[in-house]
């Protein structure tokens, strides 16, 4: 199977998302770049203290088993622009 974003999504849907859904979480594929897969955990998995372990032991392990050419699975832990905008809106409402 060729390493494409669609092929990665297929493995995420079949093998990884059901596990995360059991914990009220999900995973979003952000991009595939030079053999690296960039993901973000969402829902209850976002910001969880076990997010790094989840990434390494569930997501990376299964993706690398399906696609040996993957060099690394990188967890994006940055705060999204949407979330920052929501927080600013909430704070500005409280100060008026």
Automatic annotation (TrEMBL):
It comes from the Bacteria. Residues 8-74 form the NIF system FeS cluster assembly NifU C-terminal domain. SUPFAM superfamilies: Fe-S cluster assembly (FSCA) domain-like. May be involved in the formation or repair of [Fe-S] clusters present in iron-sulfur proteins. This is NifU family protein. It comes from Megasphaera hominis. The lineage of its organism: Bacteria, Bacillati, Bacillota, Negativicutes, Veillonellales.
